[in-house]
Design a protein that fits this description.
heterodimer, A: mainly alpha, B: three-stranded parallel beta sheet, elongated
Chain lengths: 119, 147
């Protein structure tokens, strides 16, 4: 049982690396594809962050405490900072009156940032 | 254009250092506007559906001593908006943040592949610096102050 598990671990790590790269690729494509900063934040802060976490988990396969400890540190740090980064960027865009380009976007702030009618 | 107009125009209405985009600049009216803006010192984005015509208009402007860039796009096509509309500063900050996250990911991958924890140290420091940089840039962009 133990030997079967230790056989499977490298493949699990490979699968996590591929998953992480795939998720990050989707995230970067989302950043390029989305029309405004508010929607780009979805792709960047969720997808790219999840990709990095996945890669951090996969690095546990090295079995070195020094690497694993730092991987946990990075994952925990990103877990805390990714929402804050996304929030400050969204806040900056909002304070500068950046418009929402997404069709059907709803702005409840009273600043009327949605796309002008007629489009 | 007369001698008097060519000397008066830059003095009165200098557009030096400005960028102008003319839609339909491959046509007669748009072309005249693009050439006029270029003569006033603006760098002109020549927007038209056909690349050859846009580039021909650019060559006319450049032969006249102006600066121009051909932007082949159809204004009725929503995806063409990406060609015309510049990325906002907030989007650029987001892009920098994403790029550093990708760098962190690459460092983690490299550290795991080489079984070397030194690259993990670099990844830790990079994610820290990237967070502080994003915070500072975004706060300055939004509120014109950092603290």
């Amino acid at each position: 049982m133990t030997s079967a598990l230790s056989l499977a671990v490298p493949y699990l790590a490979d699968a996590l690396v591929i998953l992480g790269l795939w998720v990050m690729t989707v995230g970067v494509y989302g950043v390029i594809r989305m029309p405004d900063t508010y929607t780009r934040l979805h792709a960047a802060s969720k997808a790219v962050f999840l990709g990095v976490i996945s890669l951090c988990v996969s690095s546990a396969v090295t079995g070195e405490p020094a690497t694993i400890y730092r991987a946990v540190l990075i994952a925990a740090f990103l877990l805390v900072t990714a929402p804050i980064s996304a929030f400050v960027i969204a806040r900056a865009a909002f304070l500068r009156g950046e418009r929402m380009e997404t069709p059907g976007a709803l702005d409840e702030s009273g600043k009327d940032l949605t796309e002008a009618p007629g489009r | 254009m007369s001698e008097r107009a060519t000397t008066l125009l830059p003095e009165l209405y200098s557009l030096e250092g400005q960028v102008a985009v003319v839609t339909g600049a491959t046509g007669v009216l748009g072309g005249a506007m693009a050439r006029g803006l270029a003569r006033a010192g603006a760098r002109v984005g020549v927007l038209g559906r056909r690349r050859e015509k846009a580039e021909a208009a650019v060559q006319t402007i450049e032969a006249d001593g102006g600066g121009a860039l051909a932007l082949p796009a159809d204004v009725l096509d929503p995806s063409a908006a990406a060609v015309i509309r510049p990325r906002s500063t907030a989007s650029r900050i987001l892009a920098l943040d994403t790029l550093t996250l990708i760098l962190v990911a690459l460092l983690v991958l490299y550290a795991a592949a080489n079984r070397s924890s030194y690259y993990m140290d670099a990844a830790v420091v990079l994610s820290l610096v990237a967070f502080v940089a994003t915070l500072v840039l975004a706060r300055y962009h939004g509120e014109r102050r950092i603290f």
